[in-house]
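Methods — Computational structure assignment.
A single polypeptide chain was analysed. Its primary sequence is given first, followed by the predicted tertiary structure written as structure tokens.
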Amino acid sequence: MKTSVRFVAASLALLACAFGFSIDAPLAGADGKSLGEVDALTDETRAATQKQIDVILKNAVIRVGEGETTNAEADKARVDCERARRAILSMGPAVYPVVDNAIKLNPSADARIHFNYLKALLLAKSEPELDVLRARVRKAVLGSNLNGIKGEAVEFRAGKPDPKRPGKRIPPTIQPVKHGLGIVFRSADGSFVVAFGPDADEKSPDCADFNVSDGSAGFVIVIGGMALPFPRTSGHGQNLTVTAPLGFAYAWATDGAPGKAPGGAGGEGGEAIATGGAGAFARNGNGGAAAAGDSGSGSSTPK
């Protein structure tokens, strides 16, 4: 079933209860196998995967307004789809051929959203660094640590440590494309997208709004740019709007800049709005701390 989720400041508390969010740092030990991951596609694992696919095919089309479907029935169908999708995700990349076959059989548009999400997180990417990020995002989802995706995305952009130059990084080999003043990294198969909003500059300490809409990707991650300190009132964190009708939308708005001494007020945090057919996560930025000599600070709506 296609669901559209729109999150603003007050809604993350519900997500926190549902998913148990933790820290936003990169995930420790994220490159090992996850619980329930299978080594190969056998007759048994193929059958187990197909069973979950059948659940999605059956329930994705059930929604209020179709026949005499009640709200309770539609909610149960949605939960059944999400549980089946998670079961497939936990089995890992080895079972992706079964998902790929389901896609080739021209499923309903509502079921395709779930399969597109699975394609984004299970199918290996041809870009090495992006594939590492894909694997780690999958682990974050399975570990109910959606906050940790932000740290993984930042780590991906920074590049891997350079063994020949301590303290230096090797940038990703995949080249981003410009999107407004920001940048977008996209996998060759088009299913996995990571974007970064532009940082503020000295002429404009407030971050400009950054919007990303992708009509084909199964997972879209957008991280806001950084605001700058400024006399009297520092820069506003970046507002984000992320839309992924055929996948999961992830929006991490940034904090306001801290106040500039002496006595400067902190900037307001950015607001995040995420809408995704397969679900969404949005984190609003916090207000920046005031500098010494001023009790004011930007508004803070933690996400």
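Note: Helices lie at 12-19, 43-59, 71-91, 96-104, 109-122, 128-142, 148-158.
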